[in-house]
Design goal:
The complex is a heterodimer of chains A (293) and B (270). Chain A has 293 residues and is α/β, with parallel strands linked by helices. Chain A has two domains: 224 residues, 3-Layer(aba) Sandwich (Glutaconate Coenzyme A-transferase), CATH 3.40.1080.10; 36 residues, no CATH class. Chain A is built from twelve helices and eleven strands. In chain A, the strands form two sheets. In chain A, strands 1, 2, 3, 4, 8, 9, 10 and 11 form an eight-stranded mixed beta sheet that branches. A three-stranded antiparallel beta sheet of chain A has the order 5-7-6. Chain B is of the alpha/beta class and 270 residues long. Chain B has two domains: 129 residues, no CATH class; 135 residues, 3-Layer(aba) Sandwich (Glutaconate Coenzyme A-transferase), CATH 3.40.1080.10. In chain B, 23% of the residues lie in helices and 19% in strands. Chain B contains seven helices and 13 strands. In chain B, helix 5 links the parallel strand 10 and strand 11. Chain B starts with 11 loop residues before the first helix and ends in a 15-residue tail after the last helix. The mean pLDDT of chain B is 94. Classes of the chains: A alpha/beta (293), B alpha/beta (270). At the A-B interface, strand 3, helix 4, helix 5 and helix 6 of A face helix 3, strand 9, helix 4 and helix 5 of B.
Chain lengths: 293, 270
């Protein structure tokens, strides 16, 4: 079965109100082209699962696509807090369901493996455990008397990840095997949509099966979007665009500036290629491209 | 650029890096998180001076990375050059953290209390926060998993060193005493290095205790800058040992020639 879709078609698979898990970590390998398309299609009431994230969550929150965020951390690292996310949580427009990184991983693993809970020592003695006693339960092992946290399943409707290559059948290669926590969300998800830098011949997967990350029965749709993680990175092809992060943060200080930035450089352009063009085009691509070794 | 410390021929960032680096040895197996220039510099400096076997996973990913200079993020590929392995978060990292294959980590915090517990979640009440901070990320996890955890702060003030955290994102010595042990958690906080002083933890109460004052810093300044009562060591408070010329040369020329570590200081221009 051919799983290749245009990005517009792939984004249309996401229905309003669904639980959407975003791949990548912080400034790395987020499915930004897909996120932009969700915004353009005006999705509503999404619940985002984003273990460690920044720009993707901030965009979707700014576009009013989000009702709830399930996360361990949302920021622009050294470039500061994610401005729209911060304001939306402070004002109560968006509900934050907060865990630590590993508690989230454990919850996703419980969902992926059909277990009632996964035990861990992560979070013991912190206030994080008290936030959601229904999903991260403090328990004691009846045999050894040891304390642990029981993490209940976190089912995901759709996982969306960005990868390096796929064939038309939906076999996917993350290459090198930098999976961040993408495997956790993919395994917990009912549906997985993958955007890739390039579609390659099926024969290349047969030639090097040891480089395959997810086989076709794990994936539901594939969309080819070169530079599809921009402005986050896609190692080793390109790094994140520091200039975009800075300009975005600066614009967000003033609503009028942000509106202009949003229309001209973010949501306005109708394709990912046009979006790249609006952000410097070839000059930007040359700046973020990593030297090939 | 930070000011040169009188009588030390180095700046405060350099003193902090060197102080931290001297804590590590060949058995140190460390990794780093976001905005962690000071510890990253310290791991690299230790490896390039007295601890050649030290393990450092850049961004928790790139094992034995040896970058020619640091990039503007400590959580990106800008510091991965020279790595022997790019490891995976779920399979490698979290297994190695829980198995204590990694034994060393360093935290900053928007708030730190006397027992080295940290907050990076909210300032104010949780439900109606004054400031919604980035979130604890892996703080709650790693505080329970890694035995040797160091704290650092480039802005030692009563706003950061508080009597009571607004939220405990990561456990240090918990409520003090044997709290960690009772929870079945390994190790604990080792040391806290700030722009004013070095603090360790009392072996029984586990409360923060002054270990040394940086050159030119008086006890009164540390007291005024700390929201809780800092314990004092017995006898005279020592002055933090200053870096050697060789340590400074390696830090300046080989570890961080573009001075990315200054990004952690308020006056730095980003």
């Amino acid at each position: 079965m051919d799983k290749v879709l245009k990005i517009e078609q792939a984004a249309a698979l996401v229905t309003d109100g669904s639980i959407l898990a975003l791949g990548g970590l912080s400034m790395n390998s987020s499915p930004m082209a897909f996120v932009r398309e969700l915004i353009r299609q005006g999705k509503k009431n999404l619940t985002l699962v984003a273990i460690v994230n920044g720009m993707a969550v901030d965009w979707l929150v700014a576009a009013d696509c989000v009702r709830r965020v399930i996360s361990g951390l949302v920021s622009f690292e050294g470039m500061g807090l994610a401005p729209n996310f911060r304001h939306a949580v402070e004002s109560g427009v968006v509900t934050l369901e907060e865990y630590s990184e590993y508690l989230l991983i454990a919850r996703l693993r419980a969902a992926a493996t059909n277990l009632p809970f996964i035990p861990t020592k992560a979070g013991l003695g912190t206030d994080v455990i008290g936030l959601h006693p229904e999903t991260t339960r403090l328990e004691t092992d009846p045999v050894t008397g040891e304390a642990y946290v029981a993490c209940t399943p976190l089912p995901v409707d759709v996982a969306i990840v960005h990868a390096h290559a796929a064939d038309v059948l939906g076999n996917v290669r993350v290459d090198p095997k930098l999976l961040w926590m993408d495997n956790e969300i993919v395994n917990a998800a009912a549906k997985t949509i993958v955007t890739v830098e390039t579609i390659v011949p099926h024969s290349s997967f047969i030639a090097e099966p040891h480089r395959t990350t997810w086989p076709r029965f794990i994936t539901d749709a594939v969309a080819e979007v070169p530079w599809g993680a921009y402005p986050t990175s896609c190692f080793p092809k390109y790094g994140h665009d520091k200039a975009f992060f800075s300009a975005y943060s600066k614009a967000a200080r003033n609503p009028e500036c942000f509106r202009t930035f949003w229309d001209s450089r973010l949501a306005g352009p109708d394709t990912h290629a046009a979006f790249l063009q609006a952000n410097g085009g070839a000059a930007t691509v040359n700046r973020i491209r990593r030297p090939t070794t | 650029m930070n000011m040169v410390i009188a009588g030390a021929d180095c700046t405060i960032d350099e003193l902090m890096v060197v102080t931290l680096a001297r804590q590590f040895d060949n058995s140190t197996r460390a990794f780093n998180g976001a905005v962690s220039f000071i510890p990253v510099c310290a791991y690299l400096l230790a490896r390039k001076t007295h601890a050649p076997e030290l393990v450092w996973a850049a961004s928790s990913i790139a094992i034995d990375a040896d970058p020619a200079c640091l990039g503007e993020s400590t959580l990106s590929d800008s510091i991965w050059d020279g790595a022997v392995m790019l490891s995976n978060s779920p399979f490698d990292f979290w297994a190695w953290a829980q198995g204590m294959r990694y034994n060393t980590f360093a935290f900053r915090g928007a708030q730190i209390d006397r027992y080295g517990n940290v907050n990076n979640t909210v300032i104010g009440s949780y439900d109606e926060p004054k400031v919604r901070l980035p979130g604890g990320g892996g703080m709650a996890d790693l505080g329970c998993m890694i035995p040797d955890i160091y704290l650092w702060s480039t802005t030692h003030s009563p706003k950061i060193f508080v009597e009571q955290l607004d939220f405990r994102s990561g456990i240090g010595w918990g409520d003090g005493g044997d709290h960690r042990e009772k929870l079945g958690l390994p190790g604990g906080r080792k040391l806290c290095v700030t722009n004013l002083c070095v603090m360790d933890f009392h072996p029984e109460s586990r409360a923060m205790r002054l270990k040394s004052l940086h050159p030119g810093i008086i006890l009164e300044t540390v007291r005024e800058s700390t929201g809780f009562e800092v314990l004092l060591p017995e006898g005279e408070v020592p002055v933090t040992e200053t870096p050697t010329e060789e340590e400074l040369r390696i830090l300046r020329e080989e570890v961080d020639p573009t001075s990315m570590r200054l990004r952690e200081f308020p006056q730095a221009e980003n």
